[in-house]
Design goal:
CATH class of the largest domain: Alpha Beta
Largest sheet: 7 strands, parallel
Number of helices: 18
Strand content: 15-25%
CATH topology of the largest domain: Rossmann fold
CATH architecture of the largest domain: 3-Layer(aba) Sandwich
Strand order of the largest sheet: 3-4-2-5-6-1-7
Number of strands: 20
Number of domains: 3
Shape: globular
Structural class: alpha/beta
Radius of gyration: 24 Å
Length: about 500
């Protein structure tokens, strides 16, 4: 199995990935990073949710010379939302590097951005229009930008930015390394690549190759006039930590938002008829976990990449399978299980069969959580009582202590748990330790390493107490914030 250490990245980057909880590369990362590290131009066809920001961002950061304050890398994005998202990711990846990442986009004071650009700005992440504006003002110099990334190129095409993108590429050094990432590669994007990229390596992670194993998928068949009531029932049963509810149209989004708020649910809408300021406010609330439910159109949510979205709900069944995969890819992140629930009317029921066939996936009929638990297959080792249930000791040779030679599944000495809260929620190592000792009644000497990161934490425990910790802490509150605790991947 490939690991990040096999991809040619620096020790500083690898250290940061470990701290962020990244354990193994996604398909696009595994294929693109070595090519970019080797200096090749790359065309990456991949949907949101496949890890493409790290795919281009990690080699980019390793490429830079921190001693030079010039703009050495430019990442072009179609929207301010994606610009902010990419900037946040790159700053996180550069935690142990003396690299400055600057975001420039429309809607923010030009003077403020000009001031930032006068200081060190190794990487500039920018929208297309603001890039040209700053170049024309003499505030952004691209003559040293030898690493250029076009992110979500097909959306730049949809928004009519391709001519401006070509102007920016012409202003960049001819010897630059160029990477282009896009969910689709329509003919105009192919022509742009032919004209401005040098012998690019093409990497495709298509929907049928996308990893949806971590996403539990289900459908709800309901008459159209009962959809709202059924949606509320599902939300109350699922109790999502954060959920995005997708509608097909702006009008439908606004209407559902109004209806749900009238029914007492804390929800906000995100659609194209809102002002940019309104959209920014909603996006910020959702990113900061102050908003639990978001109703959105596909276009408005483009580039919205939140690590702890637990549920994606297709209130309107998507017209095409690519849209379905694109939507559900927003959950199941950071090695966690996500849920995708799709509503269909009886007449739309064949659409589920089409999506299953084209995406090569399985979508079962929705069941409430308690029924899913009853119907779920039990792991083989649970046929034997656990040490938590019996209070008995466990030998590390895989045999029951004091028993005969009948073999049981070996219990690892240490278990690693994931908690969905971190520094951003005001939680530190002492808080986590207190929760384990007081809330889960775990002996202090059974607690190993505790790592509290910005948005989540990892805990190592004596395996004999891990299940007890998960069962007793799951769904409780720590410093007023509801926590989720589960076994960490790997």
């Amino acid at each position: 199995m490939t690991s990040f250490s096999d991809l040619g990245l620096s020790e500083e980057i690898l250290r940061t990935l470990t701290e962020l909880g990244y354990e193994e590369p996604t398909a696009i990362q595994e294929q693109a990073i070595p090519e970019l590290v080797a200096g090749h131009d790359v065309i990456g066809q991949a949907q949101t949710g496949t890890g493409k920001t790290a795919a281009f961002g990690l080699p980019l950061l390793d490429y830079l010379d921190p001693a030079s304050g010039e703009t050495q890398a430019l990442v072009l994005t179609p929207t301010r939302e994606l610009c902010i998202q990419v900037t946040q990711a790159l700053r996180a990846y550069a935690e142990h590097l003396p690299i400055e990442v600057i975001a420039v986009f429309g809607g923010q004071a030009v003077a403020t951005q000009q001031s930032r650009l006068r200081q060190d700005s190794h990487v500039v992440v920018a929208t297309v229009g603001r890039t040209l504006d700053l170049v024309n003002r003499g505030s952004l110099d691209l003559t040293s930008a030898r690493y250029v990334v076009l992110d979500e190129a097909d959306e730049m095409l949809d928004l009519g930015f391709i001519d401006d993108v070509e102007r920016i590429l012409r202003l960049s050094p001819s010897g630059r390394q160029t990477s282009l990432f896009s969910a689709t590669i329509p003919p105009p994007i192919e022509r742009l690549a032919d004209r401005y990229m040098y012998d690019p390596v093409t990497i495709r992670v298509t929907p049928k190759q996308l990893t949806v194993d971590a996403i539990e998928q289900a459908f709800v068949e309901v008459p159209a006039r009962q959809k709202v009531d059924r949606l509320i029932d599902v939300l109350r049963a699922e109790e999502p930590e954060q959920a995005i509810i997708f509608c097909r149209t702006k009008a439908g989004t606004a209407k559902l938002d109004e209806t749900l708020r009238a029914r007492g649910l804390g929800v906000k809408a995100l659609h194209g008829d809102m002002s940019q300021g309104q959209r920014d406010g909603v996006m910020l609330s959702f990113k900061d976990h102050r908003l639990r439910l978001l109703v959105a159109t596909d276009v408005a949510a483009r580039g919205l990449d939140i690590e702890h979205v637990t549920h994606v709900i297709n209130y309107d069944v998507p017209d095409v399978t690519d849209t379905y995969v694109h939507r559900i890819g927003r959950t199941g992140r950071v090695g966690r299980t996500g849920r995708a629930i799709t509503f269909v009317t009886p007449a739309q029921r064949p659409e589920i069969d089409r999506i299953q066939r084209e995406a090569k996936t399985s979508i079962g009929e929705w069941e409430p959580p308690e029924e899913r638990l009853e119907h779920a297959p039990r792991p083989r080792h649970r046929e034997h009582p656990s040490p938590v249930e019996t209070g008995g000791p466990v030998k590390t040779d895989g045999r029951e202590a004091g028993g005969d030679s009948g073999e049981v599944e070996q219990v690892p000495a240490v278990a690693k748990l994931f908690m969905n809260r971190g520094q951003r929620s005001g939680i530190d190592e002492d808080d986590v330790r207190w929760a384990l000792i007081e809330g889960a009644v775990v002996p202090e000497d059974a607690i190993g390493s505790i790592r509290v990161l910005e948005r989540f934490s990892f805990v190592e425990l004596d395996s004999a107490h891990a299940e007890q910790a998960v069962e007793r802490l799951e769904g409780t509150k720590l410093k007023g914030k509801q926590i989720r605790v589960e076994y960490a991947r790997g």
